[in-house]
Amino acid sequence: MLAELISALPDEQAYLELLSKYKKLLMKYARMLNYEDSYEDLQVFFLALVSKMSDNPVLTKGDGAIVNYIVSSIKHQYIALSKRNTHKSELLFSELSDEQLAFVENLSSGIDETDISDLYPVKFDLSEKKRL
Fold it and tell me: Can you give the residue ranges of every domain in the chain?
């Protein structure tokens, strides 16, 4: 069944039927990604994946192998997207505490009146020589 749908590509009806079969899986990973266009990104990946599968030898192994291949490919794409998006973490100045704002202002002004060890306590005491 799946092999027939994939071999029928680029038929629009085949694309729509494949998307409807894997919608729940795509939605699951899109929710876990937690950014605005995650579902669309996963859909684009899915459509590109099934388009390239016509020459894949997994089509001859049956529906179970095709399902496993698609599911593991989507999972790997989810992992890649989640790693890419963790580096894009943003923090607004309005979300900083007063101490953090003062620290940032001191750093940006070039005047360092704040001892960083006060902000980040050390679990063990260092001698004066080791601190410098």
Answer: 2-86, 93-131
